[in-house]
Specification:
There is one protein chain. The chain has about 200 residues and is of the alpha+beta class. It contains four helices and 13 strands. Strand 8, helix 4 and strand 9 form a beta-alpha-beta unit. The longest helix is centred in the N-terminal third of the chain and has 17 residues. The radius of gyration is 17 Å and the shape is globular. The N and C termini lie far apart (about 40 Å).
């Protein structure tokens, strides 16, 4: 059974949600939702330039991945930052890299991808998401144990801030790149960032 979409004020929950309850809510008619400590967060749909950059980056990452990894775009990710029966956290990264086995698990038994499945999350900064992407999500993704996080800024010039886990300190910056971005972690990857603009 599929829940009614969250498209009317009377369909919005009036209490904090677990991740399971959030997943059962269905989709919104416009924009998308995330779950922040049980609170439903409504976000506007991305602008065309944002989606263009996301698509170009997906294609470039996909070409660089080994066969056991896959890059996916704009799906819910259970951060597992709360007990199953407590108000939860679910984000929808612009891109994430997971193992094929995680996709197969979700296909077979349902549920969501979890932070333990993600090797990399990528957020493309939009007007209105700068603090969320650079501070809030950075902290949440680090707390969730996701090994790598890239923050893409579409200004002039296009840049990538590559973050990686640094133990109890959360994420450490691996450098902010403009022009050419090259890394060996979590997989070998190289891109002329001007292709995203």
């Amino acid at each position: 059974m599929t829940a009614a979409p969250l498209n009317r004020p009377d369909s919005l929950p009036s209490r904090l949600l677990t991740v399971t309850e959030y997943a059962a809510c269905g989709e919104t008619e416009s924009g998308y939702t995330e779950l922040l400590e049980g609170r439903l967060i409504m976000n506007p749909s991305p602008m065309p330039r944002h989606n263009y950059a996301s698509g170009r980056l997906l294609i470039a990452i996909d070409a660089a991945l080994p066969p056991d990894l896959v890059v996916i775009q704009d799906v819910d990710l259970d951060l597992r930052l709360a007990e199953d029966d407590k108000p939860g956290f679910s984000r929808r990264p612009d891109l994430m890299v997971v193992r094929n086995s995680a996709m197969s698990r979700v296909d077979g038994v349902g549920g969501m991808l979890t932070a333990a499945d993600a090797l990399l999350t990528v957020e493309i900064v939009s007007p209105g998401s700068e603090r969320t992407d650079r501070v809030v999500k950075r902290g949440e993704y680090a707390d969730a144990g996701i090994p790598h996080y890239w923050i893409v800024e579409l200004g002039e010039p296009v840049s990538v801030l590559a973050c990686h886990q640094a133990g109890e300190f959360g994420y450490a910056d691996g450098g902010e790149f403009t022009g050419r971005f090259a890394t060996t972690e979590p997989f070998g990857f190289e891109l002329d960032l001007s292709r995203l603009g």
